[in-house]
Amino acid sequence: MTVDKRVSSPQHSYSDGGLKRLLIDGRFVDATSGRTFDSLNPATGELLARVSEGDANDIDLAVAAARRAFNDGRWSEMKPFDRQTILSRFADLVEERHDEIARMDTLDMGMPLSRTMGNRRRSVGMMRFYAGLTTTLRGDTIENSIPGDYFTYTLKEPVGVVGAIIPWNNPHIAFIWKVGAALAAGCTVVLKPAEEASLSALLLGELLLEAGLPDGVVNVVPGVGEVAGAALAAHPDVDKIAFTGSTATGQAILRASAGNLKRVTLELGGKSPNIVFADADLDQAVAGAALAAFANSGQVCSAGTRLFIERRIYDDFLERVAEFTRGLSVGNGLNDGVQLGPVVSKTQLDRVVNYFAVGRDEGATVLVGGERLVEGELANGYFVAPTIFSDVRDDMRVAREEIFGPVVSAIAFDDVDDLIARANATSFGLGSGVWTQNVAKAHRFAKAIRAGSVWINCYNLMDPAVPFGGYKMSGYGREGGVQHLDEFLETKAVWIKTS
Ligand code: NAI
Ligand code: MG
Q1: Contacts (Cβ under 8 Å, ≥6 apart) of 79
Q2: Ligand number with the minimum distance to the CA of 224
Q3: Which stretch of DSSP H or E encloses residue 209?
């Protein structure tokens, strides 16, 4: 790994250290408590902005605004064409302002600019996809068998007020992913961004207003998860929660949702297997194995963090992955050529560094990395070296628990039947990868793996039209794809006696 020691200073209107406020009912307002929290650049520790800290009172105000906006039909009863026009305008604004939005996320949570900028096609494409779905809403006419003349059909109706709770690991994409589908379905939204990276959500809220979205249709309330997030999850007037984040918080949200039986979709953690067979195109698999785990400094829910390697190539292949890893450039994400930025926060840093000790204590070998990076000014940020643990056994914590840092656990395998069982021996089921040139083997694995996505000879590809989501404790519900709309719709059956 090479360490990039250049330290850039922030350059963004949202990063002037000033106060950014809550968006409620079409206006930017202070938190009712007057409280604020600091948003820091994880690469430098510098203050980017102070952010109004919403609590249960602000959530109440935002939910009331979203409820009024839903009930009076200013959005849900607007003609699909007109909703589409507004959402398309928003997509255009996201495209125009994309560099700025990307830079903001890089400053706020550390993801290298190459990656945030590279997300242009994805974020703009996603918003255009959801804008397109607006005019596809439809029910069915259904033949029934009741004696006499009865006509039956279904109406698809927006579920109502949606609470969207998003994490910090891909902030502006997460915003569009959640809000785009909810708006296409005709819902209104209260979104709580992650406290580590709230800024792009507030800017996108501003752009929605500029695009002509009526007041109150999308409200953005930054705040602490256990306070503002919990209030939203428990709120009796919220009809649905769409959540992305940790499995433990997903469980808390599910419990909180019981009061009014709100609908819930959950996109949670993972410990995804990435399997390399000896018959793979190994040149491609080397980079694939490393980047599946290290991209975005490992802060990706579907990261391929259990690297299964066929035993007869284990040592040679892993040495090549180690060599590739040593060549990765780690530093401030604003700098050209940097491939891995810091992790998002001191908490996340401590969590990852702790796993270095856990892995060593369990008897895993650190092949590369295994330490915090503190050279020069990197010491002010939260940098860790991309890390490969070898000699990992399935029962070790580093093979079972989501670390959410640039850490991969390499595990040898011999037998294919046994491998399927081992790959599936996890409470998670989000992503998976298979590297082989054998078509039969590829399809066999695609079917056998209990996970929402299987990538064959590639990893972590995402597209607006392709559904994404989890099996088992990685959550439920699918985001992306035409079925994403269904997560925000109720189905009503209508019966008419026609004679
Ligand atoms: P988290 O799941 O606690 O936070 C995600 C979002 O939920 C944030 O907006 C947070 O404010 C909110 N939240 C927290 N507690 C809440 C509650 N009781 N009720 C409602 N909302 C709440 O994740 P956190 O603490 O940022 O990271 C901890 C670990 O979670 C990471 O190390 C990683 O393993 C995992 N994680 C997984 C993500 C994924 O994409 N699947 C994203 C972020 C974290
Ligand atoms: Mg948390």
Answers
A1: none
A2: 1
A3: helix 199-210
Lookup: tokens for 410: 């390499």
φ, ψ (nearest 5 deg) of residue 325: -65, -40
DSSP for 397-451, please give it.
HHHHS---SSEEEEEEE--HHHHHHHHH-SS--S--EEE-S-HHHHHHHHHH--S
Residues identified as active-site: 267, 301
Q: Indicate the Cα dihedral angle 187, 190, 195, 200, nearest 10°.
A: 60
pTM of structure: 0.97
Backbone angles phi, psi at 355, to 5 degrees: -65, -25
> Counting atoms of ligand 1 from 1, which one is nearest the CA of 474?
41
**409 within 8 A of 39, measured Cβ to Cβ:** no
- Residue 232 — φ and ψ, nearest 5°? -65, -45
User: With contact defined as beta carbons under 8 Å apart, do 269 and 426 qualify?
Assistant: no
Ligand 1: does its nearest atom lie under 6 Å from the Cβ of 479? Answer: no
320 half-sphere exposure, CB direction, 13 A CA radius: 14
Quickly tell me which residue has 């996970």 as its tokens.
451
State pLDDT tens for residues 419-435.
999 999 999 999 999 99
Residue identifier of the C-alpha nearest atom 19 of ligand 1: 230
Could you report the per-residue pLDDT of 47-80, keeping only the tens digit for each? 999 999 999 999 999 999 999 999 999 999 999 9
- Atom 10 of ligand 1 has which residue's CA nearest to it? 225
For ligand 2, the distance from its centroid to the CA atom of residue 304, given in whole angstroms, is: 22
